[in-house]
Amino acid sequence: MKIKVLYIDDEQNNLISFKAAFRMHYNVFVASDVSEAINILMNNPDMKVIFCDQKMPGITGVELLEQIKTMFPLPVRVLLTGFADMEAVVNAINMSQVFRYLKKPWKEEEIYQTVEEAVKYYHAYSMMEINMQELKSAYKELDKFAYSVSHDIRGPIAGILTAIDYLEQADRIEDVRDLLGLMRKSLKQLDEYIIAMHEYYNHHKGQVTVSNITFETLAEETKNIYSVFAGANKIAYETEVVQTEPFKSDVVSIKLIINNLLSNAFKYQRKDEANKRVKLAIEVKSGLATITVEDNGIGMEEAVFGKIFDLHYRSDTENQGFGFGLFNMKGALMKLKGQIDVQSKPGVGSTFKVTLASM
Q1: Domains and CATH numbers, the chain
Q2: Stated pTM of the model
Q3: Which end of the chain is more exposed for a tag (fewer CB within 10 A), N or C?
Q4: SS3 helix, strand, coil % of the chain, rounded to 5?
């Protein structure tokens, strides 16, 4: 596509001459005043270069370009001047209001050279702006992360300290047992948090290691992990694996995906449901692995589907987690270039379906 160039001048003959001279090389837009220029820029966000005459009615070219800069910072601004107002030009360049100035009458070779250099500057500046926005976003996420870390760690510690205070005054063995149970619960929370932090760290710095995946083995491992919890909470846990072909991927990432989905399926069960159930189904076919985790738990509204993978998001206040699980899982999915589909209804349950391609 042709480079988009805007030329601003109050003299109609100059606008016609500029467009006639460069329309074969560039996609040329012309404007005779500020409002017309702003309208063109609003409708063409990919405009790369703006040429503006210094002598405009009621406003100088420097002032006009400065006004445009506040609204449209990316296009590179070039000043055209036909009189010796060098102080204004120098100040404009020094204050980064303009990229360059050219004397009128302009020469075609100067315009070509200026556009070429301006476009290089445009792309460099655009990348810098993108990096700055990413950096700002990273700092914002880091601030949120640091606050949440301190908050989540202090919670369990406060519970333990409170229990110790009461233990020092407890006389009955029943009270001691209750307080020890509270301490155990707080320590378990802290341990789960440390594990989640470890997973978060590993999956935001680690590299993918490809190996042969035997999903039957992974499914058997999940039974060993969750069978006691399922039995104690009367949850029917079922696994089904169909794999008749080899599959290569990163086993650590796949384990993280499966374990996080299962952990949530077991955690967010309905207390009043008589027939609690969780099912893990894995099918490998034509180089694709489909991992499905289904439950008949509390479910969730469709409105929160886009939030559940955010860092520190908690979908349920009764079952307090730390908001790392699905966020870590999203990171693992991105590394494996996988996709996830979520189906859920409140009071009915949830189904998470992950699709991965063999590497």
Answers
A1: 4-106 (3.40.50.2300), 137-202 (1.10.287), 210-357 (3.30.565.10)
A2: 0.48
A3: N
A4: 50, 20, 30
